[in-house]
Design brief:
Blueprint (H helix, E strand, L loop, with lengths): L1 H7 L4 E8 L4 E8 L10 E3 L5 H9 L4 E4 L7 H10 L5 E9 L2 E10 L7 H8 L2 H39 L8
Antiparallel strand pairs: 1-2, 1-6, 2-3, 4-5, 5-6
């Protein structure tokens, strides 16, 4: 996927993420970082001083845009950037929204500054619908895995309780 993107948009890395405004936690569902760049944890706690700003950004109308000098942008963006990719020079984002409901965000980063143009925004926008489908499928898959694990845990617990209640005596073993 990244090789395909690089043919049309300069990018050294990519992040597909979701944000929960209730808990102020971001989760990176998928990421591609170049070698030598330290990956953050997949779960990122938003610092308290950015809670209101993050919620406001999440609730704004979805857009696709770019920042060609991340060091010179708003202090909040610089602080968020430090959490996910401190060495990035330029960044692009595409808010992923379905039926006016924000699902996630796709981020592209370049180590160099001044890498993006309006043409790149237009190209990235073409990926909105396929990325919504991919994000929806990924979230459904994660929910199925979570439910499967809960079921396995419940079965283990019930088997343990059944064994405790019945003991180790086997009827008719004599």
């Amino acid at each position: 996927f990244m090789d395909y993107i690089k043919q049309y948009i300069p990018a050294d890395g990519l992040i597909l993420a979701v944000y929960d405004p209730q808990t102020n936690v971001g989760r990176m569902l998928a990421s591609i970082y170049p070698s030598g760049v330290k990956r953050p944890s997949s779960t990122i706690a938003i610092p308290p001083q950015l809670w209101e700003w993050s919620k406001q950004q999440w609730e704004e109308e979805a857009e696709t845009g770019y920042i060609n000098d991340l060091d010179a942008d708003e202090p909040e963006i610089r602080e968020i950037n430090q959490l996910i990719w401190p060495d990035a020079g330029s960044g692009m984002h595409m808010d992923l929204e379905l039926e006016r409901h924000r699902l996630g965000i796709l981020l592209l980063f370049s180590i160099q500054k001044n890498r993006y143009t309006d043409d790149h925004v237009e190209l990235l926008s073409l990926l909105h619908d396929p990325m919504i489908s991919a994000l929806g499928n990924l979230l459904k898959h994660q929910e199925i895995v979570r439910l499967h694990q809960m079921l396995a845990d419940d079965n283990e617990y019930l088997n343990q309780r059944l064994l405790e209640m019945s003991g180790d005596t086997i009827i008719g073993a004599d």
